[in-house]
Amino acid sequence: MFSRSVARSSSTLVRGFASSARSNRKVAVLGAAGGIGQPMSLLLKTDPLVTGLSLYDIRGAPGVAADISHVNTHSEVKGYEKDDIKAALTGAEVVIIPAGVPRKPGMTRDDLFNTNASIVRDLAEACAEYCPKAYIGIISNPVNSTVPIFAEVLKKKGVFDPKRLFGVTTLDVVRASRFLGEIKGADPKDIKVTVVGGHSGATIVPLLSQTAQGKDVSGEAYKALVNRIQFGGDEVVKAKAGTGSATLSMGYAGARFANSLIRALNGESGVVEPTFVKSPLYESEGVAYFATNVELGPEGVKKINPVGELSAEEQELLKACLPDLAKNIKKGVEFATQA
Ligand SMILES: NC(=O)C1=CN([C@@H]2O[C@H](COP(=O)(O)OP(=O)(O)OC[C@H]3O[C@@H](n4cnc5c(N)ncnc54)[C@H](O)[C@@H]3O)[C@@H](O)[C@H]2O)C=CC1
Ligand SMILES: O=C([O-])CC(=O)C(=O)O
């Protein structure tokens, strides 16, 4: 489906995965049999840069792996049962984690904390033990808290490297480019919107003023667009009416993030993805993790870009984001350090 020659000339998943120098890259997906895990694993199977896929879940991963393994691309696929996490993680260079429960209508992402915090903590312990040098992308919500939890566990185990841990916020930029494209009648592939902050409601801060197509959106249209980007997840939760949250668009976004990361690890320069990482930008305000455009390199995080020039509206959005984000981060840190 994604041919190598087409992939080389493309920078987006729409035409195929962007590709760079060939290397061996084993990717583990934890939560691989779930709503996100399955389509994301399928997309990773079609990525020419992924040479091995290790699919782990507490239930159902061997079946998903058997199914995906028939797709005729070169990578090897293996599925692992609940007690096989050691084998699943050993040798993994990139680990993407969508394990955990999704929202139902009426819930916030923070309402998932009680269930997902301990899932993420346990998976962090396993990663610390079996793949301490891996580059890890966290999808499990609430991302604003699960990333700090993961970091604290790695710190306790003495293996935390802030350059290797990422909260996956790619879906926010995917949505922003699609929604802005819709109102402008433009192809989303030509629209790049920087989205900063965190990954829930008011902590999601789109910087429309920094895009050619977004800077003249104003008044009610601006408010509606910002609201749709901030609450795009709720739109899907409502439409799915109790059966879950975004899975297919997240599978796409997660595979895109993994592809960018691997291209950077392979030495491609100029790979930039927005992602929620340990960041100095607002640390003095109690916000030790923050999403901005991050330049990725062979070491993982190469350069954390500042937010850049903000409009008056965006300054207000950022002001509203920071205290919420600080609370979410503190909650995660306290959970992991007290546990
Ligand atoms: N970062 C983001 O932008 C987004 C994050 N999410 C979050 O992703 C998470 C997963 O969502 P879905 O795939 O829709 O849920 P799902 O319920 O369909 O799948 C989750 C999978 O995780 C597995 N699982 C549970 N505990 C596990 C453990 N300890 N180890 C390995 N696997 C485990 C389950 O068996 C299940 O197969 C949710 O927390 C959701 O809120 C969802 C959409 C976007
Ligand atoms: O809304 C949710 O719960 C899932 C999510 O993070 C998203 O779709 O952005």
Automatic annotation (TrEMBL):
Its EC number is 1.1.1.37. Residues 26-167 form the Lactate/malate dehydrogenase N-terminal domain. Gene3D superfamilies: Lactate dehydrogenase/glycoside hydrolase, family 4, C-terminal, NAD(P)-binding Rossmann-like Domain. CDD domains: MDH_glyoxysomal_mitochondrial (cd01337). Residues 169-335 form the Lactate/malate dehydrogenase C-terminal domain. PROSITE patterns: MDH. Keywords: NAD, Oxidoreductase, Tricarboxylic acid cycle. NAD(+) binds at residues 31-37, 57, 116, 139-141, 250. The active site is at residue 199. One of its GO terms (molecular function) is L-malate dehydrogenase (NAD+) activity. One of its GO terms (cellular component) is mitochondrion. Substrate binds at residues 103, 109, 141, 175. It comes from the Eukaryota. It catalyses: (S)-malate + NAD(+) = oxaloacetate + NADH + H(+). GO terms for biological process: malate metabolic process; tricarboxylic acid cycle. Belongs to the LDH/MDH superfamily. MDH type 1 family. Homodimer. PANTHER family: MALATE AND LACTATE DEHYDROGENASE (PTHR11540), MALATE DEHYDROGENASE, MITOCHONDRIAL (PTHR11540:SF73). This is Malate dehydrogenase. It comes from Kwoniella pini CBS 10737.
